[in-house]
User: Which sequence fits this backbone?
């Protein structure tokens, strides 16, 4: 294992410990009736992210295995912008919040090197706009998971795990790998406290601004020619965005909050099967991380991401079927049930066929 990843593991353990200590001392109800600035977990998460970004960049050794030249601004600026964006989320003015989010994403996009083109068929300025739109979508997508904080933490952690593994195999810079492991320690601490039954939850908009930080971090991975792996790592989140649009505009459902249109919210039956949903989708995101690793050996940048998205959509569709959630939310139970169903169906056909071909005896 490289020296950088040892530093990264050290950062993970250190910031997991610090974050757990800080988060566990936030004395507030899970969903307080009145907003209190000093008891909002999002400020603590962003503050620790800021400290972690500076610590990794200035304390960890410098490595020269990068295509893009990184400065401390590449890691600190997204967190600072996220702090500013969170103020707009607290104002609860949707069109203003997402307009400012897109403007901030556009600024980050234009900071990228001139030779970085994510979509070669577009002109340079069109490519920058497209990149900004993707960052905004990632911010929106992680915000959708806010209804179940553990899921949002797992999705963030899955992307960081993907980057760390890519760095371990020498596909991404060691600096990004160490930074990803350090960020992972913070989100694992939040996951520890938000695991059902949750003791800590993020305010509306909290995971949206963390999604902005995530999108900017993924942009660094895309600059290192790992854009397909980055998409695969968030395939579940992309499918959830599609499910929200389908339920909202095709099925014309009407809900109080946007996260109520998601598949995981429907599956949880308003929290009754919350733990089962989290465990089930944890397995799915683990599969996405594996597929992101497989992508590194693929020559095509489109086929495997589409295939992974299809697997996620298929799995969510299976879970959304008529079978009882407690049976479907386990992959093993679902597999056993499916096999038993096929066997019983074949036996039924054989018995029916035997009755039809059986000859009557003289006594009959």
Assistant:
């Amino acid at each position: 294992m490289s020296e950088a990843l040892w530093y990264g593991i050290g950062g993970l353990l250190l910031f997991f410990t610090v974050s757990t200590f800080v988060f566990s001392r936030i004395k507030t109800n899970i969903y307080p009736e009145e907003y209190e600035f000093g008891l909002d977990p999002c400020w603590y998460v962003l503050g620790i992210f800021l400290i972690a970004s500076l610590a990794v960049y200035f304390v960890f050794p410098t490595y020269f295995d990068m295509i893009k030249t990184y400065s401390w601004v590449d890691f600190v600026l997204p967190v600072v912008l996220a702090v500013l964006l969170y103020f707009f989320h607290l104002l609860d003015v949707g069109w203003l919040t997402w307009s400012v989010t897109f403007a901030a994403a556009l600024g980050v996009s234009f900071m990228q090197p001139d030779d970085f083109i994510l979509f070669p068929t577009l002109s340079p300025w069109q490519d920058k706009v497209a990149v900004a739109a993707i960052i905004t979508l990632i911010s929106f997508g992680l915000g959708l998971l806010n209804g179940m904080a553990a899921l949002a933490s797992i999705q963030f952690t899955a992307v960081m795990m993907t980057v760390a593994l890519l760095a371990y195999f020498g596909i991404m810079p060691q600096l990004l790998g160490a930074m990803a492991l350090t960020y992972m320690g913070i989100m694992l601490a939040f996951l520890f406290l938000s695991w059902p039954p949750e003791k800590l939850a993020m305010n509306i908009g909290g995971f949206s601004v963390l999604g902005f930080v995530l999108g900017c971090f993924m942009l660094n991975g895309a600059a290192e020619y790992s854009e397909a792996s980055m998409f695969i790592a968030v395939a579940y989140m992309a499918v959830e965005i599609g499910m929200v649009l389908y339920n909202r505009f095709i099925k014309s459902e009407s809900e109080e909050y946007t996260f109520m249109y998601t598949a995981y919210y429907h599956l949880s039956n308003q929290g009754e099967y919350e733990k089962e949903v989290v465990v089930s989708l944890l397995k799915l995101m683990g599969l996405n991380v594996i597929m992101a690793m497989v992508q590194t050996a693929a020559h095509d940048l489109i086929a495997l991401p589409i295939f992974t998205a299809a697997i996620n959509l298929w799995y969510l569709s299976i879970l959304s079927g008529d079978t009882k959630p407690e049976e479907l939310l386990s992959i093993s139970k679902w597999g056993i049930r499916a096999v038993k169903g096929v066997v019983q169906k074949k036996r039924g056909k054989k018995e029916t066929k035997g009755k039809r071909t059986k000859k009557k005896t003289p006594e009959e």
In short: The CA atoms of residues 20 and 189 lie 5 Å apart. The first helix runs from residue 3 to 23. DSSP finds 15 helices and no strands in the chain.
